[in-house]
Amino acid sequence: MTRTVQQRPAAPEPSAPQAVADAGPDVILELEGVGKTFHVDAQPLEVLRDIDLQVRPAEFVCLVGASGCGKSTILRLIVGLETPSSGRLSVAGRTIDGPGLDRGIVFQEHRLFPWLTVEQNVLLGLDAIALPDEEKKRAVADHIRLVGLEGFEKAFPGQLSGGMSQRAAIARGLVARPQILLLDEPLGALDALTRTYLQEELLRIWEQNRITTIMVTHDVEEAVYLSDRVVVLDPRPGRIRTVIDVDLPRPRARGSAAFAAAKDAVLSELRH
């Protein structure tokens, strides 16, 4: 089931990204009948069942649901760190059979190497790419600038705040120019003020790069603020309960009646 939450009669401003409208029928990522079962103490534990989802180019999609419903497992399947027990995942029609440069991921913990500087950590994102050193250096500098860390190139992770570390991790996830960026609760451990600021930064980066983005979050307001669509998952085994289109212009006014209606629509599905 798909629901649409709209603000009427207002239309998006010309400068607002219209990923869903512009993408047309093309699909960059597809999950077809995907299931995942782990084995714990020799007993099967079904985590996901019959996940069907299509994501369009340049779309921003958020996954929400109760803890343990398989949100992060979906990201690990997409990035190729896990293999499905059933079904198929594909990027641009190509079956996912392991990690690839076409997919980048950022975790809740930034996972920067503490003995490397910011620029050295970001450079790791280009390790598997055959580029001249000067081009790599330029790409690293461009992405450090993109996430607003100019002046901190030589800093070590221990010298950065939590928000700055996450920005460095986002730069590392983007530097190889993947087709899809996966975000596994990247703002979950931050204080409220920093989290709100980085939500704005994520949107700015998304608008500038037009990269397909899939984000796991427990924060319904965050999901409504950021995404074109919110995918609501049922508890284990995780299944897609509904997909809610958030048809609101950007930048979104968190205090508006339309925004509140969108939040209520997501919360209503989660309560069930």
From TrEMBL:
Family matches, as PROSITE patterns: ABC_TRANSPORTER_1, ABC_TRANSPORTER_2
GO molecular function annotations of the record: ATP binding; ATP hydrolysis activity
Cross-referenced InterPro entries: AAA+_ATPase, ABC_transporter-like_ATP-bd, ABC_transporter-like_CS, ABC_transporter_ATP-bind, P-loop_NTPase
Any Pfam family: ABC_tran
UniProt keywords, alphabetically: ATP-binding, Cell membrane, Membrane, Nucleotide-binding, Transport
Disordered as annotated region, ranges: 1-20
Residue ranges annotated for the ABC transporter domain, each copy included: 29-260
UniProt family annotation: Belongs to the ABC transporter superfamily.
Protein's name according to its UniProt entry: Putative ABC transporter (ATP binding protein)
